[in-house]
Amino acid sequence: MQRAMVNIFDRWRVSDVDASTVLGGISAKTFRRWKDGEFGRVNRDLADRMSNLLGIHKALRIIFSDPQTGYAWVTTANDALAGRSPLEIMKGGGMEDVVRIRRYLDSVRGGW
């Protein structure tokens, strides 16, 4: 899952610092180690976050026929999110911030 997170954040064009915040406050240094292929143990909270982020990625691939449009959606202001980008919301750092975006996308694609 860690390798998948590195790839997804790269596609979404999310900085290492922002990625570490979305992942629940792991250090940017730890995230950079992941990028170098050095993976360590993952606690339950981090595993749950990564699972939800994978769900977000999957929903974007279903909703948008062009993958690049889905990748850009993450950092684009959205009227349905009070003018904020999904990344801005997920950078709140709480699990509920990531889950909020996942639920929103699930509702858009008809998954809920």
Automatic annotation (TrEMBL):
Signal peptide: none annotated. It comes from the Bacteria. Residues 3-55 form the Antitoxin Xre-like helix-turn-helix domain. InterPro entries: Xre-like_HTH, Xre/MbcA/ParS-like_toxin-bd. Transmembrane segments: none annotated. Residues 59-111 form the Antitoxin Xre/MbcA/ParS-like toxin-binding domain. GO terms for molecular function: DNA binding. Pfam families: Xre-like-HTH (PF20432), Xre_MbcA_ParS_C (PF09722). This is DUF2384 domain-containing protein. It comes from Antarcticimicrobium luteum.
